[in-house]
Amino acid sequence: MAGALRMTEAQFIGGYEHDLQQFMPYDYIPVDIKTEPFMPETAHGPYIQIIEEPKQRGFRFRYECEGPSHGGLPGASSEKNKRTYPTVRINNYVGLARVEVQLVTHTDPPRVHAHSLVGRHCVENGTCTIDIGPNDLTASFSNLGILHVTKKGVVEVLTRRLREEKKRLKGPHCHLTDVEESAIVKEAKELGKTMDLNIVRLKFTAYLQDSTGAFTRALKPVVSNPIYDSKSPNASNLKISRMDKTCGSVLGGDEIFLLCDKVQKDDIEIRFYEEDEDGCWEAFGDFSPTDVHKQYAIVFKTPAYHSTEIERPVTVFLQLRRKKAGDSSDPKQFTYIPQVLDKEEVLRKKQKPLPHYEHWRGGRGGGGAGGFGGSGGGGFQFHQEMNGAGGGAGTGGFFNVSFSGFGNGGGAQMSGSAPQSGAAQQQQQTDRQTGGQSDSPLRQQLLQIAAALNSRVSQSARQTATALLQYCSTGDARVLLAIQRHLCGIQDGNGDTPLHLAIIHHQTGVIQQLIHTLLSSQQQGIIHTANHLQQTPLHLAVITRQVKVVEVLLKAGADPSLVDKDGRTPLHLAALAGDHNILRFLLAHLGECHAHLVNMPDFHGLHPLHLAVRRDGERCLRLLVEGGAKINEPEQKSGNTALHLAVRENLFKVACLLITELRADVNACTFGGNTPLHLAASLSSPTFCSMLIAAGADKSIENDEPLFFSSSSSDDEDEPIREEEKEREVAPKTSNPRKRPAGGHTPLDLAKCQKVRKVLSPSKSPKSDRRGSGNIRPTTSSTEEVERAGLDEDTLSQLVNVLSVGDVPWKKLAEKLGMMTLTHLYQDSPTPCHQLLRHYKLGGGAVEGLVEALQSLGLTEGVRLLRNAELRDDKHNTDITVDSGFGSQPMEDVEPPAGVQ
C-alpha cells in the first residue's frame, strides 16, 4: 500500500473489536494530535498511570544494520514463563482514547531523544500509538524495540524532529524562517552535546476525544524509569570483585589493583568515606582513564586519611561510584594503618634503652665466686666446674684465673689453676685407695680437655691484659678489637653486627677501626653481612647519608650489588633519597663488573632512574644517565618510562629536563600503548600537552585499547559499543559507517578538558589520515581558532620581525610570558623566538597576556600589530555571524548531516 493506512473511526472501532489490528501493519500519522497544552488535573479527573514499568537493564539497543531485536522490551516484572510489557492505564475515564509513547532523555525535565522506537504501531518519527477503549483503557506495548542512532547522526535526527514539532504547532503548510531554522539547529546541537545515548525513558501521553471526535485533549504525560543499553558499561550494576590490598598507610599513595564489573573509564570514581557522629568524611582514589584496563580493572592510589596522627588502625569504606548517574557499588572495608616513620628501623636502633639492674650479689675482694672485687686485689675471677662423675658442668669453678698488681706499678701477674671440687678430690682419694681401678677413659679425656681449655684461657687472658695496657698507653682501640676479632661478626636480636650498629650511631672512627680489624684478620665477609631487613652496612651508610662511610666501605670491598628486602641496591636507595653526592660516589666505584646495576630493577620493577624521577631529583637523573642509565627503559609493572612517570606525577621541570637535556623519547609507549601525550591528555594538562607537542609528540598514535568492538560479535559478549568513541568521519560513500575497524584511543579521544582538546585538535578529522580515504569534511583545529583570535601565522611572523628589529632577547620575552621553564626547548632552534610564540599560542595563551608582555618591553610596534589583527578578526567574525546561523557556532561543533559528504 502506498502511503499511510487511513481508517475512519467506525472502521477503526470495528477493527479493534475484531482484533484485526494485531495482524496488520499499522502506520498511523497522528496529524490531528497536539501535544500542548495539557488538560488541567482535577481531583477526580482522568489521568494516565504506568502500571508496568519497562525493564531497566538487560535490553539491548540495536543499530539499523543489526536488524530487529529478539523480542520486545519486557516489563519490569517479566519472567521466563510469564511475560509482561510496559503498560499504562487511563483512570477516571470511559470512552475512546489514544496513547502515544516516545523516547525521551533521562534528564529532568525530559527532552526528546535521538533514538527511535520501532516495532508494531510505530511510525517513522520514532513514536508508537495505540487506540484503546471504550471499556478497557489499558495499553500494553508488547513489541517495542529501540533503534540506536549513531553519534554522527544525533544532530541531524534531533534537528528533523524539532523541525517537525515546530511545523506541527504552527500548521502543516507553514514555512520556517532562517532565524527559526538557526534556533532549531542550535537547540539540536546543545541537546546532542548533553544527551546520553545509552539511557532512555519512555514518555506516555494519552489523548482523549474532543467534541469533533479528534484526539486533541492531551492528559499530562508520565515518564518511565530509565532504560539502560545492555551493551553500555553503565547498564551493569557496579560491583567490586577483588582487591589486592585492604589496608594502606594513613598518608595515602598505596597502589591498589581493583577488579570490577564493566565500568566506563571516564565516568567512574573510587570513593573512600567514613560516617560517624561528627559527620561524613570522603576522599577519592587517584587514577586517570588510562589506569582503567578494559573496563574491568582499575589501578589507583589511595587518598590520605583526614587525620594522619592516628595511633591505631582505622577502618573506612570504599565503593565504586558513577560520576553522572551517582549510583554506587556495595561498600568494601579498607583499613588505614598509622604511618611508619622509621621504615628502615634506624631511629629505633639509635635509641638507648635504660639498662635493667638486678640486685648485686657479687663478692667483695679479689676471690669472690663470679664477682668483680672492689678492693683487695682488684681482680675478677672466672669459676666453672666440671663434674667428673657425670661429665656435666657443675656449679663450682672449672678454672680459676686471677689478676693482681694493677695500679701498683708491678705489671700484670696471672696465676691459673684447675681446682678440683671436694667431690672430685674424694673420688681421687677413693681411686687411690682402690689402686686406681676406677679410672675410666671418659674421665681421663675430660681432664685433658679441661687442662687444654685452662691453658687457652690463660693465654687469652694474658693477651687481653697486654692489649688493655697498650690501649691505655696509646688510646688506639684497634689493639682491643684485634683481641676480640673473633667477636666482630656477632649479631644482636635485629641481626645487626657491630659494624651495623656503628653506622647506625654515626660512629665514624669506630667504623674505620672495625673495618681495619676485619681486613687485618681476613674477615672481609662480615662487611657483606645483612641484618634481618637484608640491609648490609653499605645499605645503612646510604640510608643514613654518610658519604665518608660509603667511601670507606667501597674501598674495603663492600659489594654494591647486594639487595635489601625490596630488591634495592645501594644505588636504588641513593636515587630514592635524591642524594646526588652518594650517588656520584657509587657510580664512580661501580666498575665494569657492576655497571649493570644502573639499569637493574628492584622487586617493584623500578630502576634507579625511575626512583630518581619520583624524588624529583634532577641532578640524580643527570648522573644516572651519564653513568649509563637507559633514559627510555620502562619499569616492569606498566611499561612507564621516566618521562611517563614525570607526566603522571606532574613534574614539569623534570619532564623538560628529560626531553631537552637527556633526550627522552616523547613517543615511547607503555605496555598498553599509551604515550606521555596520552597521559597528559587524560590528566587534563594543557601545559604538558603543549610542551610534548612542541617536542615532537605524535598526536595520532593510538593505544592498544579499542574504541569499540565489532557489532558482529555474539550478543552474549561483554564488550561495549562505545558509540560516542566509535564515531569517526571515515570511509567513502559506498562503505557502511556503522561497520568500521576497531582502532585504539588517540590522546584526543582521552581528553575531556576543552583546553586540551583545542591543543590536540588536528587540522582535519582525527582519523582521516589513518582510517581510510574519502571525501571527508575537515573540522577546524585549535590553530585556526587561535588564528581567529589574532594570532595567525602571518601575525606571528610579523611579530617576530618586530622583535628582531627591536633586538629583544627571546629569553627576556619568555620571562615576561612566564615560560622560562621551556627555554631549553628552543635553545637549539634556529628561530627560538618564533618557536616560543608558537608554543605560547598552542598552550592557549591569551593575546592580552602577550600584549602586556610587549608593553612592558616597550615594543609599541608589536602591540599595534596585535591590536590591528584583533580589529580585523572582529570584523571577519561579525560578517560570518550575520551571514548564517551556523557561523555563530564554533566550527568544530558543526557536523554535516548524515550521508552528506
Written account of the structure:
The protein is of the alpha+beta class and 901 residues long. Among the domains are: 177 residues, Immunoglobulin-like (Sandwich), CATH 2.60.40.340; 105 residues, Immunoglobulin-like (Sandwich), CATH 2.60.40; 112 residues, Death Domain, Fas, CATH 1.10.533.10. The chain has 30 helices and 22 strands. Strands 3, 5, 8, 9, 10 and 11 form a six-stranded antiparallel β-sheet that branches. The protein has a five-stranded mixed β-sheet with strand order 13-20-19-15-16, with no helix packed on it. β8 and β9 form a beta hairpin. α10 runs parallel beside α12, α12 runs antiparallel to α13 and α13 packs parallel to α15. The longest helix has 34 residues. It is elongated. The relative contact order is 0.05. The N terminus and C terminus are likely disordered.
Rg calculated over all Cα atoms: 43 Å
Estimated structural class:
alpha+beta
Mean pLDDT: 75
Number of strands: 22
CATH fold description of the domain at 9-149 and 197-232: Immunoglobulin-like
What's the CATH superfamily of the domain at 9-149 and 197-232, by name? Rel homology domain (RHD), DNA-binding domain
What is the overall silhouette?
elongated
What characterizes the major β-sheet?
Answer: 6 strands, antiparallel
Number of helical runs?
Answer: 30
CATH architecture of the domain at 9-149 and 197-232: Sandwich
- pLDDT below 50 for ≥5 consecutive residues: which ranges? 1-36, 360-421, 709-740, 764-790, 877-901
CATH class of the domain at 9-149 and 197-232: Mainly Beta
